[in-house]
UniProtKB/TrEMBL annotation:
Protein family per UniProt: Belongs to the SAM50/omp85 family.
Heme among keywords: no
Primary location: mitochondrion
Name of the featured protein: POTRA domain-containing protein
Biological source species: Oncorhynchus mykiss (Rainbow trout)
Pfam families documented for this protein: Omp85
Keywords: Membrane, Mitochondrion, Mitochondrion outer membrane, Transmembrane, Transmembrane beta strand
Amino acid sequence: MGSLDPLPMQGPELGVHADDIETPEMEQESKQEVLENKDVIVQHVHIDGLGRTKEDCLTYEIAGVFRAKNLIDVMKRAHEARQKLLRLGIFRQVEVVIDTSQGVDALPNGLDVTFEVTELRRMTGSYNTMVGNNEGSMVLGLKLPNVFGRAEKLTFQFSYGTKETSYGLSFFKPQPGHFERNFAVNFYKVTGQFPWSSLRETDRGVSTEFSFPLWKTNHTLKWEGVWRELGCLARTASFAVREESGHSLKSSLSHAMVIDTRNSTILPRRGALLKINQELAGYTGGDASFLKEDFELQFNKRLFWDSVLSASLWGGCLLPIGDKPTCIADRFYLGGPTSVRGFSMYSIGPQSEGDYLGGEVYWAGAVHLYTPLPFRPGKGGFGDLFRTHFFLNAGNLCNLNYGDGPRAHLSKLAECIRWSYGAGIVLRLGNIARLELNYCIPMGVQSGDR
């Protein structure tokens, strides 16, 4: 998506460089000890360079500086405050200046801390090209950061892709002093083509979200109202897909919980991830009624020789409410490079005349071993972006008869398991994406799978 100009994550150093000091190490340690032990008082904190930004919303971000007790603590807290100011997304640059207090009320051990900020422009535009999910798209964006002076953001985006075209307008409002607590409103239109189902879908909707942290978890509460228009992508579409064609209205409430301790979202070396989503449709209007639950669990462990072992598990269940069957647009799909490698995109499970209809319950698991390239070419440089990749994937997707007991459900999920194994090379493209070149051997292929 469109992005603001890169924000500097590192600014002027608050101390001095070690290379500039010619004194012995013991003398450095003694000076450090003197700085740590000397009591100071932060008397004033100034923010220079404000234009349209309201000072009251910044007070929460810099309040910790006043609690510093010594010079080293002042430096640490000033750096933390600087990071918080940059996180607001309203400043292009933030620099910190620490000086002795001046004026008639100045104390001998008093300090003044000044944050010199440069605000973003009132309006920024962007042009990007994106590649993902076997699709390329051109994205035009327009952003108005800090609309009302308290870190609000108004965003308009238009995306033209090889398979879908969309546009949307969103408004984002954080709570002052608690950036993780925020409120958002979105208006959008999205058109997508799904060749594996011979389906074309156009969504026009509005949604509201409220995000907040709770202990070590992050939560999002969401309401969404969407008018969906389903149509056939080709004349050869199956009768089952043609039956799904037409208009429907979905109004749903959803909740998402995330715990993420990974050091990276692209190629993590350590940490874990837990995602749990619930969606309830039909109780706030519309003609779609269902309860949908899904989860994702991932563990990453660093091993010997700079190798990493990663294990993942996904699962989900869609329960219709009432006599009306579930819609093809709400079901789960399985297969492809993001779930079970070696199978075509979403080409596992129930199908009719070559069109995949999705399923109401699924599970998938994966074990990956990432190792450095053999003989470590380019070690310490470009070669570190590449990893050798060994993997084992498995999963299943089906529909259940909810009149049967849990034992029958587990038995059906354990039948006809699709799995694959293989090896390849992974290239990490910064912290944005990853590129894989794999040799896959699919196993457990059932009739109709691709």
